[in-house]
Amino acid sequence: MSKHDDQFLDELKGLKTMSSIDPKKKEEMRMAISKHAKKKRAQQKRKRQFIWMATAAAILLFGIVAATMINQQNMTVDEPGTPPDSEQVQGQDPEEGSEEEVNEEPENTPEEDPEEGEQPVEEEKNRNLEVKVEGPYEETIMIEGMEESTTVLEYHITSHQISYQMNEFLGNDLIEDDKIVHTSDAENVKITVEIINNTALNDFATELDGDQTPLDPEENSFEGIMHHESGDIASGYYAYQINDDVLYIQFEYIIEAGDGVEPRLEKLRQSIKETQ
After folding, report:
1. Which of 181, 167, 164 minimizes the C-alpha distance to 220?
2. Do residues 137 and 154 touch, judged by C-beta distance below 8 A?
3. What is the C-alpha separation between 228 and 236, in angstroms, rounded?
C-alpha cells in the first residue's frame, strides 16, 4: 500500500471518529474553543494597550525633561533692587520719584561728620601676628641643680617687635590670627603665646582668674604677673606689659610627663625681649 493510501485511511478514521461523537459533546467542544479564542484576543488587546501606555508615558516624560531644560537655559535673573511695574504707586511719575530722592540730603550727625583732620580710631584687638623663626641654638638650663645642654628656637613677633625662645621639644607650633600655640610631640605639654593689643596690664589682670603674683622684672625688664595651679595637670599663665600691648602666655602640662618643664618655662621668661 502506498503512502498516499495510508494518509487517506487516516483521514477516514478521523471522520469516523467525528461522526461517532455525541452532538452535545461537539457543542461543548465548540464553546470551549470559542471561549479560548476570546480569552486569547483579550490578552492580545491588553498587551497592545500596555505597549501604547508605556510609549505614551515615555513620550510625556521626554517632553517634561526637554521643557525643563529649555526653561533653565532661557531663565534670566531680574536685576536686584528693581521693583516690578505692578509695584509702582498708581498715579506717580517714576521720574518725579527719582528726582526727589536725588535732591534729598541726609542730615549730618556728629558721628558721621567728624571734624576736619580727625579720623575715627579703630582698635586693633585682633591684629594678625607676623612671626619669624630662627634656630635652633644651643643653650644651657639648670635642672635639679645641674647644668644641662638643650636646644631652643627663637620666635620673632615682628609685627609687635617682641621675641622669645622656646625649647625645641615644643617646636610643634600653630600660628593663628593673634596667638602661637606650641605643643610637644607627645602632646603632654602645651604653651600658648598671645598678644592683647592696646591693653593695660592692670585692666587685663581683672579679667583673669586665680591669685596673681608679681613677676621679678630682673628676669626680662618687663612688669608682669603670674598664676600657677598644681595637680595632675599643672596650668597657669604669665602676663607682661610691653609698650601698649600685653604679652599673655598660658601653659599646661601633665605632671608625670613634665620633667624639666619648670626650668624651661623659666628660660622662656628670661628670653623675652624687645627687638628693633
Report:
1. 164
2. yes
3. 4
Tens digits of residue pLDDT in 190-237:
999 999 999 999 999 999 999 999 999 999 999 999 999 988 899 999
Answer whether residue 85 shows pLDDT above 60.
no
What residue segments make up the domains of the chain, in order of their start? 3-72, 131-274
Q: Is 212 helix (H, G, I), strand (E, B) or coil?
A: coil
- In the sheet that 162-167 helps form, which strands lie side by side, from edge to edge? 131-143, 146-157, 162-167, 273-274
For 133, counting Cβ atoms within 10 Å of its Cβ (0-12 exposed, 13-18 middle, 19+ buried), the class is: middle
Nearest to 183 by CA among 254, 232, 110, 270: 254
CB contact set of 156 (below 8 Å; sequence gap of 6+): 131, 132, 133, 134, 162, 163, 275
CATH number assigned to the domain covering 131-274: 3.40.1000.10
